[in-house]
């Protein structure tokens, strides 16, 4: 499979800024942004609700079929998948994994602003402190594909966009 543009997985704990950053990337570099959580909701790619966590549990087969369709329709690359789970796209279809990291106090405030349940806030802040998503990425992808990005401020995200620009220029 030869792509003319790299595909990205933008991942991290809920609230770190994945969708914001992915949207900025898509706009600046004319790429296709796939917010996977929204895709699951809009196309009903889930099979049950987790009432305790106030979320849906996605159907792996339905999501996999949808992702394969997106990849085949965009075989030239330039796709940004944005999700907190790291195993939703086959690793051979991803060129770079951008892991957004956020200060726990900032993350706590962001999740409060989203009106998350206090238990869900604690769960997500703990996941960030204990590097849960980063460790999953390190287990699933080669080191040279992984870029860790601070997402505490918009300035951090602007700086990260410059880094993405460098990755894209090296990919030609």
TrEMBL record:
Q: Where does ATP bind?
A: 15, 17-20, 114
The text of the family note is:
Belongs to the adenylate kinase family. AK6 subfamily.
Q: What does this protein do?
A: Broad-specificity nucleoside monophosphate (NMP) kinase that catalyzes the reversible transfer of the terminal phosphate group between nucleoside triphosphates and monophosphates. Has also ATPase activity. Involved in the late cytoplasmic maturation steps of the 40S ribosomal particles, specifically 18S rRNA maturation. While NMP activity is not required for ribosome maturation, ATPase activity is. Associates transiently with small ribosomal subunit protein uS11. ATP hydrolysis breaks the interaction with uS11.
What's in the GO CC field?
cytoplasm; nucleus
Subunit record text: Interacts with small ribosomal subunit protein uS11. Not a structural component of 43S pre-ribosomes, but transiently interacts with them by binding to uS11.
Keywords carried by this UniProt record: ATP-binding, Cytoplasm, Kinase, Nucleotide-binding, Nucleus, Ribosome biogenesis, rRNA processing, Transferase
- Has the keyword Disulfide bond been applied to this entry? no
NMPbind: annotated span: 35-58
**For this protein, what is any one GO molecular function term?**
AMP kinase activity
List the subcellular locations. Answer: Cytoplasm; Nucleus
Q: What is its EC number?
A: 2.7.4.3
Which superkingdom is the protein from?
Answer: Eukaryota
Keyword flag Nucleotide-binding: yes
Q: What is this protein called?
A: Adenylate kinase isoenzyme 6 homolog
């Amino acid at each position: 499979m030869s792509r003319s543009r790299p595909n990205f997985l933008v991942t991290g704990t809920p609230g770190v800024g994945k969708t914001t950053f992915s949207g900025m990337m898509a706009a600046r570099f004319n790429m296709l942004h796939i917010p996977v959580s929204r895709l699951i909701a809009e196309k009903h790619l889930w099979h049950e609700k987790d009432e305790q966590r106030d979320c849906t549990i996605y159907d792996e087969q339905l999501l996999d079929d949808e992702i394969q369709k997106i990849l085949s329709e965009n075989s030239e690359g330039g796709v940004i998948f944005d999700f907190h789970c790291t195993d939703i796209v086959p690793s051979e279809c991803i060129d770079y994994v951008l892991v957004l990291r956020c200060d726990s106090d900032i993350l706590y405030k962001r999740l409060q602003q989203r009106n998350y349940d206090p238990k869900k806030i604690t769960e997500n802040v703990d996941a960030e402190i204990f590097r849960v998503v980063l460790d999953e990425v390190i287990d699933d992808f080669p080191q040279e594909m992984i870029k860790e990005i601070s997402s505490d401020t918009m300035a951090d995200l602007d700086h990260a966009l410059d880094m993405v620009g460098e990755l894209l220029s090296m990919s030609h």
